[in-house]
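Input structure tokens:
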């Protein structure tokens, strides 16, 4: 595997893992309803790092998706015109790419809402993030990273197969009817015979000194 592929997969994997970890940590450190007190028309809540963790997880998953999109887009642009866009790997790569973006958008919305509600103050009501929202965003981040890496790897397999088939076509030319360039060639010095008709030597090639008499 090329070094560039390893670097891209490692960077995207680290960013995806970071977003997942931050999402679960935000879930564990978010403000709970039992920690909020109401004084008059204002809410008093303790300090929580869940809002900052959710924003960082959101930025990490978006950056990972951008890297995957640029890498996969460059691969598709570098495809030769002779490649087969209807191949199975190409279709799978496109499906994984589309669903990865869908999950990224949903994860971004979930993490953004969870972070905002974790630190939102209102004069009439006290809002807190419901249990499992940050964890749901973390799981969506994991799914999006897996789908993005799958689309990238499938795109690489598609291009390597196309290059391999092109090399075979250049090294082994095809002939109409499956014939070979060596078929039809006659070995030098070997007389040709037809089935059932033995060769008759030329009358002019008879040895000298022998007379042929009529019977």
């Amino acid at each position: 595997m090329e070094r560039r592929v390893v670097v891209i997969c490692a960077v995207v994997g680290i960013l995806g893992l970071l977003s997942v970890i931050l999402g679960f940590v935000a879930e564990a450190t978010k403000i709970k309803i039992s920690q909020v007190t109401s004084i008059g028309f204002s809410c008093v809540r303790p300090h929580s790092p869940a809002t900052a963790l959710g924003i960082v997880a959101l930025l990490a998953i978006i950056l990972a998706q951008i890297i995957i999109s640029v890498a996969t887009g460059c691969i598709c642009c570098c495809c030769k015109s002779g490649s087969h866009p209807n191949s199975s790997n190409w279709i799978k790569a496109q499906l994984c790419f589309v669903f990865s973006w869908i999950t990224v958008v949903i994860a971004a919305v979930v993490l953004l809402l969870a972070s905002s509600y974790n630190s939102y103050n209102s004069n009439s009501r006290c809002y807190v993030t419901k249990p499992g929202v940050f964890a749901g965003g973390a799981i969506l981040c994991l799914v999006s990273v897996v789908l993005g890496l799958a689309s990238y790897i499938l795109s690489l397999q598609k291009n390597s197969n196309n290059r391999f088939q092109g090399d075979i076509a250049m090294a082994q030319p095809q002939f109409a009817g499956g014939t070979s360039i060596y078929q039809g060639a006659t070995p030098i010095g070997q007389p040709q015979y037809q089935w059932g008709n033995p060769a008759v030597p030329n009358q002019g090639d008879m040895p000298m000194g022998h007379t042929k008499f009529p019977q």
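The longest helix spans residues 133-171. The CA atoms of residues 169 and 185 lie 24 Å apart.
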